[in-house]
Request: fold
Amino acid sequence: MSKKHSQKFVELVNDALTRIPEISAEEVSKKLEMNEDFVLVDTREKEEYEAGHLPNAIYLSKGVIERDIEEHVPDLEKEIVLYCGGGYRSALAADNLKKMGYKNVKSQAGGWREWNEKGFEIRKP
Reply:
């Protein structure tokens, strides 16, 4: 069940989504299946990631992604897809990466929740 978000938080996310494209769980699954060259980033909390994550996802929580992204993805042109629990935190993080100069950043709509609802493969560390 999804958490009830405050109106101001939803407004902040909706503002970020005016600048950040979303990508569906199906599209991400297809990119993984086709072995496309992109970076998949889990922006959830560590315990969420450890409970299960998308295949090939690296872990950079929303709390540290802006600080650590350049170490993991120095190429500002590289395609980056971020996801979180429901698509809110990843949209905010993607907006910040765009402000940092990353050109090809997307947020997975529906996040982990939708990925699981669709029955796609998950991994555990």
Q: What stands out?
A: The chain has one domain: 21-117. The beta strands are 22-23, 39-42, 58-59, 80-83, 105-108. Helices lie at 7-16, 25-33, 46-51, 65-72, 88-99, 111-117. The first strand starts at residue 22 and ends at 23.
